[in-house]
From TrEMBL, chains A, B:
Pfam families: HTH_5. Keywords: DNA-binding. This is DNA-binding transcriptional regulator, ArsR family. Residues 1-93 form the HTH arsR-type domain. Transmembrane segments: none annotated. The keyword Transmembrane helix does not apply. NCBIfam families: HTH_metalloreg. One of its GO terms (molecular function) is DNA-binding transcription factor activity. InterPro entries: ArsR-like_HTH, HTH_ArsR_DNA-bd_dom, WH-like_DNA-bd_sf, WH_DNA-bd_sf. The keyword RNA-binding does not apply.
Length: 125, 125
DNA sequence: ATTATATGAAACCAAATGGTTTCGTGTCAA
DNA sequence: TTGACACGAAACCATTTGGTTTCATATAAT
């Protein structure tokens, strides 16, 4: 059993906005540290530390190639997040109030909502 | 427009394990601070501060009733998390490796996996 | 062989975080 | 009215966090 020595948990790893941006950046391309750090307003070393935290959480995989270390997304640990979320879905599943958010944000899970005919309405009390 | 003064964002709010436990606890029942704090190995004041952070993130609603303040889950901001996650789903959607996690964790999104007949198989290379 | 590049490690620092104890105040009960 | 209860605010503290700069080392290029 591998047991990836997860010193940092996923929840903490994604708490930082820089790290979330890193995950997006490394989602489809593999990149070396120097190139990565060009996308951020901080030192290479700082970015490197963020990458280490992501790696500890298993969210990113590093591969040494010559003198550079390339990083890429490893999305598997996000499953834990999804599972955690799924617990709460039963609490909003029937809530009209969520609709508001759907509308405000226009898109959810890649699906865009379109105008409906207000078939469901608040009773007029 | 209400604009809930979100000083703390959702990602940071759920980063702490105590706060995640709080959300679960307050998911179905509304509870006053003192009762809530009995579930945690720390002072009432500490729990109170966690509740404030959750409230600032909009994840919990407080209602004053007499001398007590009752808290309850407000799941709406979790939408943001779900949306964030949805971005990454396209990166694991086709990955066999996720299957491993499904099996290991037995359950995903409230659906339990059952034995299949291995209709899909890895080609034998 | 020498120089330039890519990187991590280390030492350091300010600010945020997660906790404590103490105190003041509003509310309920006798 | 006098207490007991529920709570938040404040002051305080240790540790963690997110950043810096400097230095050492491995690899690549000339």
């Amino acid at each position: 059993m591998p047991a990836p020595s997860q010193k940092h948990d996923v929840f903490q790893a994604i708490a930082d906005p820089t790290r979330r941006q890193l995950l997006r950046l490394l989602a489809d391309k593999e990149m070396p540290v120097t190139i990565i750090s060009r996308h951020f307003p901080m030192s290479r070393t700082a970015v490197s530390k963020h990458l280490r935290i992501l790696a500890n959480a298993g969210l990113v995989k590093e591969q040494k190639v010559g003198r550079e270390t390339r990083y890429r997304l490893q999305p598997e640990p996000l499953i834990e997040l999804k599972q955690w979320l799924s617990f709460f879905e039963r609490f909003w599943a029937n809530k009209l109030s969520m609709l508001k958010h759907y509308v405000e944000n226009e898109e959810i899970d890649g699906l865009k909502l379109v105008e409906s005919k207000h078939e469901e309405q608040e009773p007029k009390e």
